[in-house]
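Many introductory courses stop at the sequence. We go one step further.
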Amino acid sequence: MAIKSRSKSSQPTAFLRVAYSAPKLSESTIEGIRRLTLPATKALPFVKLKANDQPLWRPESFWHVAPTGNREMDVRLGRQYARDAIAAMKADQNCHLIAYIIQDVIKDAIHRAGEKGGGRRNAVVLGFLSEISEAVATTQLPSSGQCMKFNPRTCPGH
């Protein structure tokens, strides 16, 4: 039986060494990554994430709230959720967050109406929309700006 063995060459083997230096991230790149990953939005207590959520995935629902049945408490909760949403919108620079939330509020209302055979006012939604309305009424809105036009690069989720 023959045994194979490596022969040791008398010549040294030259190895190619590759050095790579990643470019430094600029502030705009870091802001862009933050805007796409939506960390503040995904941390909101009423946002439902997809199973095994990934950083660039859009949440399953921007409105996943079950009313408690106590109207006063639900209105207060809705108002707090609105303040949290406004803060997240600013932190993530997601100018369409409130629109996404309202869109999912409507989907939820349709779903609940189908389950119960009729529409019923939701006090959490009432509190949320009241707080948003008051915030809009007391804020001077820009005549034009980044959020006035749809731009998929600056507004993730589309």
